[in-house]
């Protein structure tokens, strides 16, 4: 992506973007639930069809259907907010083949050996909005994008230190020293591959949705185990945490209009055209009105962490670029997340103002060095969409995990049981567990990844 | 500052910026050392004149000259890198007057009562480059900018919670609730005032240097005590740390082309014109050359935290936007810091490529809640320019502090003695203390602020 591309795509003077999706050329993306739920008991009647309003069961994989590392999974559809469950999930083995270089003579030709070279595992949650299509495409596509990205650099991943040149050729004798001084490690290549895979997947979704005349977007939270490390890549407001006997550690942070306020205001400062004169980029404690004119009120601009006062002018009465508090905060009055995949066609209602320029598809990646952890029997990673975290804090989830696992050591299905129990705790059925007994009406999907069973679990796709 | 202003000022098509400073209209900023060094013993002969090469003494305030909170100070000039000591320092009492509102009838008129209302204390270090002028102007100006900013909002600072309207008028009954929900506290107003003061000071320096036909810039590190809190605002590569018996806590982080790589690359992505086709915004482990053409080499772009490989094209052989490692890292081959004041005229040697658009004058502010600390006898904040930290780690400084203070409790001048001792430790005179016995050839200035003597110290300006 170049700045020129950005300007042509989003700014006035470029070719006019189509205000509505063009006539479909391919068939729409069919709705489905995750593949690994097929044959699960509680869901036979609704396996691949939309929710029936009268029933809102918690669904998990069938007993005997093992996910990678014997991970657990459960999901629940929202309380009639949308016809479909807009969450999607995927997991499986990640098989990375080696691209071997030929002999010196034909170095510019790569000989692709189809044999498996490195293997990892992959778990992903996608929380859709504006329809289920983007999340389904992401669940179908992102792991392939990641595999391709990793295969393109696998030669660099298997040496102690990534080589300056992927070919291993040393143009400068001190090349390894330059790489050393920059502190570039193998995990930086995996981080780079995850960043590129998210962006590529976003482009695929944009093309597919345009071709099928559909719309929508989704968040993406991905965990990848590779070479003894767990990489957690997040774009959106899902969350992953590590729960151990004596520790709760966040493995991701949320990207919302509030947490990315400065980046978003900065873009509106650089390209005011993006607001089309309809929004103000300034933040105020509430939307201003006529009575505030001429008063000095609290405000914040893109370069400010603190707050100051400004004299209210007429342009300050416009609708704010970022409006609302906490879970209610919206970008351009429309979207609750600031990173994710899709949303290429999304516009502010009844205008031509686009959301996409303000959204990032690139994830933030954190690395958990599992091999260094001195793993204990019940160390798990909990990944869940925002519906869970709206109602349960990290500490509450950790308490539920610690209260459930020790008493259920013999049950091979216990990690899905745990996922199911976590979801039940958000439905007001176990009021005592959540303290305030809050209820979530959102779609919720949960993976429970047991770190200690990584050598026992089988894989499925 | 508006985006339009930015485009007119820095992008082609706007009025041509003057490539060289215009003919001076005012007299140049005279060189001087900090005012509080006047009359100090070790410096009587060189008090306000440039360094004499034969002597490189460590200077500190005269015994009996108390700085705010009985703080200590010491400085040393660089080893013939420049004619002048380009560091500057300032400290003093901050007297904030109240702007009282009149009666209901003439609410739009402010009655300025000249009486002192709130008092704080202020310590500041400025590390100049390209000449001493910017640092001297900053030392003369920044505290006034800050006082003005604070006086403009002092009505909002003295209530438990900042009011939505500075006048205290409640336009909406739930205004206090909106402010509460945004989590806006009094300290956010002080942070906002510091951010605005740095920017205003930057503008003053720009005007003054243009008028006097001088050039240069400086970093700025400021500590302000106010209402029981210590605010540390930093723009540049100086550093402040808190040293306690059992704790070393960084109170600032450094802003260099390396630490701000993504912001700087992002700007070059948005406005490629700023590089005038002479630089590449991409980061490589080393500068590329002809032999690298067509090879796949490690690189990083603005949206990447990780690394990836790209096939080298001709444009990748250009000089990198950010080049070099660690202390050697330079922005556009020219500048080692990415935030600070001044540098309005700075250009890449023999080109019209400006540095200023890539520099931020806004500081990062951290807040130390001194009243909550359970202060111990020897809790101090150490502020110093980068020359100290090039040679001593936070932990080494903490060890030196802890080894010095307990044995010198009776000496009222001991905090300046400590500052002096820290500087001596960078001169290879106490090799055993620094471990590797590294030597600093840079200007160094150090404040030692004893947190426990805040009610004992007198103030001076």
From TrEMBL, chains A, B:
SMART domains: PP2C_SIG, PP2Cc. GO terms for molecular function: [pyruvate dehydrogenase (acetyl-transferring)]-phosphatase activity. CDD domains: PP2Cc (cd00143). InterPro entries: PP2C, PPM-type-like_dom_sf, PPM-type_phosphatase-like_dom. Residues 1-10 have a biased composition (Basic residues). Residues 14-27 have a biased composition (Pro residues). PROSITE patterns: PPM_2. Residues 1-58 are annotated as: Disordered. GO terms for cellular component: mitochondrion. Residues 100-451 form the PPM-type phosphatase domain. This is Protein phosphatase 1M isoform X2. It comes from Hipposideros armiger (Great Himalayan leaf-nosed bat).
């Amino acid at each position: 992506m170049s700045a020129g591309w950005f300007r042509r795509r989003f700014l006035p003077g470029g070719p006019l973007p189509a205000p509505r999706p063009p006539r479909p050329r391919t068939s729409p993306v069919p709705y489905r639930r995750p593949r690994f739920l097929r044959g699960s008991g509680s869901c036979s009647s609704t396996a691949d069809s939309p929710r029936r309003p009268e029933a809102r069961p918690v669904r998990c994989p069938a007993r005997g259907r093992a996910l990678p590392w014997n991970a657990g999974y459960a999901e629940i559809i929202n309380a009639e907010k949308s016809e479909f469950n807009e969450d999607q999930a995927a997991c499986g083995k990640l098989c990375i083949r080696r691209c071997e270089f030929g002999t010196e003579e034909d170095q510019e030709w790569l000989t692709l050996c189809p044999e498996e070279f490195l293997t990892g595992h992959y778990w992903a949650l996608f929380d859709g909005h504006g329809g289920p299509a983007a999340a389904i495409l992401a669940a179908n596509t992102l792991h392939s994008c990641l595999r391709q990205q990793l295969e393109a650099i696998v030669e660099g991943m298997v040496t102690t230190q990534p080589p300056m040149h992927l070919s291993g050729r040393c143009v400068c004798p001190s090349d390894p020293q330059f790489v050393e001084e920059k502190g570039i490690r193998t995990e930086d290549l995996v981080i780079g591959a995850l960043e590129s895979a998210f962006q590529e997947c976003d482009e695929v979704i944009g093309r597919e949705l345009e071709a099928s005349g559909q719309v929508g977007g989704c968040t993406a939270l991905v965990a990848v185990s590779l070479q003894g490390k767990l990489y957690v890549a997040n774009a959106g407001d899902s969350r992953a945490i590590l729960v151990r006997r004596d520790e709760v550690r966040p493995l991701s942070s949320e990207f919302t209009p509030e947490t990315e306020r400065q980046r978003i205001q900065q873009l509106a400062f650089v390209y005011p055209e993006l607001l089309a004169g309809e929004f103000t980029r300034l933040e105020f404690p509430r939307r201003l009105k006529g009575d505030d004119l001429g008063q000095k009120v609290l405000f914040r601009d893109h370069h400010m962490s603190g707050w100051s006062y400004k004299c209210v002018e007429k342009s300050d009465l416009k609708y704010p670029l970022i409006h609302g508090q906490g879970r209610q905060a919206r970008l351009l009055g429309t979207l609750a997340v600031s990173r994710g995949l899709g949303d290429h066609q999304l516009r502010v209602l009844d205008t031509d103002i686009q959301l996409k320029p303000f959204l990032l598809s690139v994830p933030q990646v954190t690395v958990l060095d599992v091999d260094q952890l001195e793993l204990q029997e019940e160390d798990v990673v909990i990944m869940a969409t925002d519906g869970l975290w709206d109602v349960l804090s990290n500490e509450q989830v950790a308490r539920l995990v610690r209260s459930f696992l020790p008493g259920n050591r013999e049950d091979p299905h216990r990690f899905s049981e745990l996922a199911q129990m976590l979801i039940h705790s958000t439905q007001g059925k176990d009021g005592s567990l959540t303290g305030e007994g809050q209820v979530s009406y959102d779609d919720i999907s949960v993976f429970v990844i047991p770190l200690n069973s990584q050598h026992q679990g089988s894989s499925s796709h």
